UniProtKB/TrEMBL annotation:
PANTHER family: ELONGATOR COMPLEX PROTEIN 6. GO terms for cellular component: elongator holoenzyme complex. Pathway: tRNA modification; 5-methoxycarbonylmethyl-2-thiouridine-tRNA biosynthesis. It comes from Ceratitis capitata. Signal peptide: none annotated. Pfam families: ELP6. This is Elongator complex protein 6. Belongs to the ELP6 family. GO terms for biological process: tRNA wobble uridine modification.
Amino acid sequence: MAASVLFICGLTDKVLPKFVHISEEANMDGSFLFSCLLRDRLRITNTGTVLVCLQQNFQHYFNAGMRLGYNAKIFLDRILNVVDPLTDMAQKGMKSKWLRDERLITTYILNDICEYISETADQRVSTTIMIDNLAVLLNLGATKEEILQLCYQLVDLPKQYDNLSVITKISNCDLNEAIDNNLAKLSNAHIRVAPFKTPVSRVADGKLLIQREALYQKARQEDEQGRVQEIDDREKRIVCAEVMYKAHSRCVKIMFPCELEDHSDKNKCYVPPIFLVVCKPVYLSVGFPSNKSAVNPTFLPGVLYFSVI
């Protein structure tokens, strides 16, 4: 189930988009996304992960991982490095460096991250920096300007390391709009955890609003004489999706993926919903209907399409 969540979000590749931002609206919990992402990063060989624990200590991620079927502690100091200010403050009290000067909190985080990635980033297939959650820095005394400056510096890191990705999360994004909007504009993939506008549903906890960049390649093009030419023209488009989710203690259920729209100035791209029915056999074909209103649609390559027998 964790793989299906990341597949819908487009976060299943060995090297993730350069900057991924997760926004939580008030009274919503997107921790399951971080747990799924951490599990996916740890299962890939020769990858590195730097986890910055600001909202919970590392024990929380260990417990969540055990429910999802993996033990995060066996990866510690091997492919997983942890920056855990909460545990450090609990053990050292006022002697902790995180309580010395609130103006230096973001500097300490950046220095610890750079120390870890400078040693092993060049030797890894990919390295992922995960920060959960930026809103806690406000409680520790950091200003909005310092948080944004930290994120700008993190965005510059993938320019030094081609295989580096940064994932950030912020809670109460509707209350911290200044920070959230800036990070959303910086991101290559933005996931918003939002509630329903209607009353609370027992079927689903909320919805994921996904917006990410995708590269489309035009393989063929006709010239003025009508001759078909092979070209290599890759263009970047913004692809959006909306899905409902239900987070259980050991899995996450995705329901009724909706229409994907191309929000560029060109034609919209329609991908039909993907329905997974467990109680019946499922027929899998590669492609999607070129005409959603056609009785006998033709299938085009590139998308997984599920239909129930």
